[in-house]
Design brief:
Layout: H1 4-8, H2 16-30, H3 39-55, H4 58-67, H5 69-74, H6 89-104, E1 122-128, H7 130-135, E2 137-148, E3 163-165, E4 174-179, E5 182-187, E6 196-198, E7 210-221, E8 230-233, E9 249-255, E10 261-264, E11 267-275, H8 276-281, E12 283-288, E13 294-299, E14 308-311, E15 327-334, H9 341-370
Parallel strand pairs: 1-9, 11-15
Antiparallel strand pairs: 2-7, 3-6, 4-5, 8-9, 10-11, 12-13, 14-15
Helix pairs in contact: 2-3
This protein binds zinc ion (ZN) (2 copies).
Length: 371
């Protein structure tokens, strides 16, 4: 059984202020924003919040003191995420918001400010050419995002006078209700926890406080970017609720198929078709490069199908250095298929010569054995 007093490090007879102050200290220390990716801190943070939720509420504390944690859970309407469960995001945010607002002195008495939500992150997909990935590129990103309504400044109200204190909760954002001899606090269903009711909503945004707007951004794509890379443009997502942080824009980059090159990280692969005779005799050929134009490379005599000839520093750049990958030229020897009579004749002679050479070698070999 969880010991909420021990979790907060306070004695059983701690005053409300002692509990609140212990919670603040611990919540600051274990807050997920300060401990990104730290599972242990996250769990601890949940435990602290759970303990605080109970001990900061006189009714719940009384029940907890008398009957323990199970009494609270068992009678809360049951089910996962019931009372004390953290799937109740609104309540969770409320407790946290309440305390942190006081702590940081934000909000000027409006309990709404710190429970305001950050704007949503947005996703944008774009496709660029391999040349653009090689050189780096500037692209224009056009997308829709929510921005604060200019008419009402995000309040959602037609005028200042149409914002009224919520009659249901008296502006506290939370209401208490009783069930038998238990009593619980919940986010006010009438105002959704804001503590305010808008009698006449803003006509521009229908009371939402935000409007959809087209946005256009110039985004620099770094040279060497890989297929599937994601760029983040901080603050370019949806507007948050009234003055709270914007979300971010995530730009996912895919790279178009290239007619000449295949990519393998920083290396580029080019398939070089080569006729049989050139492969056998060796030659000099021109191959395209991503820089534009072509370069000459040497193909050694007797090169085999599938052989890779490496041209250093002719691949893609690394995003964070001046180094480049290599160009890998993969030899694809082609068997001739439409021969004229003269060529056939030459090949027959060639074949005959190969045959004779083999026989000579073999006879030499057998001669050695028999000798
Ligand atoms: Zn508005
Ligand atoms: Zn209310």
């Amino acid at each position: 059984m969880a010991d909420y007093y021990r979790t907060l490090g306070v004695p059983k007879n701690a005053s409300d202020d002692e509990i609140k102050s212990a919670f603040r200290k611990l919540a600051l220390k274990y807050h997920p924003d300060r401990n990104p990716g730290n599972k242990e801190a996250e769990n601890k943070f949940k435990e602290i919040n759970e303990a605080y939720e109970i001990l900061s509420n006189p009714e719940k504390r009384k029940i907890y003191d008398a009957y323990g944690e199970e009494a609270l859970k068992g009678h809360a309407g049951g089910g996962p995420g019931g009372f004390g469960g953290f799937s109740q995001q609104a309540d969770f945010g409320d407790i946290f918001g309440d305390v942190f607002e006081n702590f940081f002195g934000e909000g000027m008495g409006s309990r709404r400010s710190s429970s305001r939500r950050r704007g949503s992150d947005l996703k944008y997909k774009t496709e660029i050419s391999l040349e653009d990935a090689f050189n780096g590129a500037k692209i224009e990103v056009n997308y829709d995002r929510k921005t604060l309504c200019k008419n009402c400044g995000g309040s959602g109200a037609d005028s200042k006078s149409s914002v009224k204190k919520c009659p249901s909760c008296g502006g506290r954002g939370r209401v208490q209700f009783s069930q038998g001899f238990f009593s619980f606090t919940q986010t006010c269903p009438k105002c959704g926890g804001s503590g305010e009711i808008i009698s006449s909503p803003c006509k521009s945004c229908s009371g939402m406080g935000v409007v959809k707007e087209k946005n256009s951004l110039n985004v620099k794509i770094p040279a060497g970017v890989e297929d599937g890379s994601v760029l983040r443009v901080s603050g370019a997502g949806d507007a948050g609720e009234k003055g709270s942080q914007n979300g971010d824009l995530y730009i996912e980059i895919s790279i178009k198929h290239h007619p000449h090159f295949e990519r393998d990280r920083q290396d580029l692969i080019y398939e070089l078709p080569l006729d049989m005779a050139s492969a056998a005799l060796g030659c000099e050929v021109e191959v395209p490069v991503i820089d534009g134009g072509r370069i000459k490379i040497k193909v050694p005599e007797g090169v085999q199908y599938g052989k890779i000839l490496r041209v250093p520093e002719k691949g893609m750049p690394y995003t964070n250095s001046r180094k480049r990958g290599d160009l890998l030229v993969r030899v694809k020897v082609e068997t001739p298929s439409h021969l004229n009579e003269q060529q056939r004749d030459l090949l027959r002679k060639f074949a005959q010569s190969v045959k004779e050479q083999k026989e000579k070698e073999n006879s030499g070999f057998f001669k050695k054995i028999f000798d």
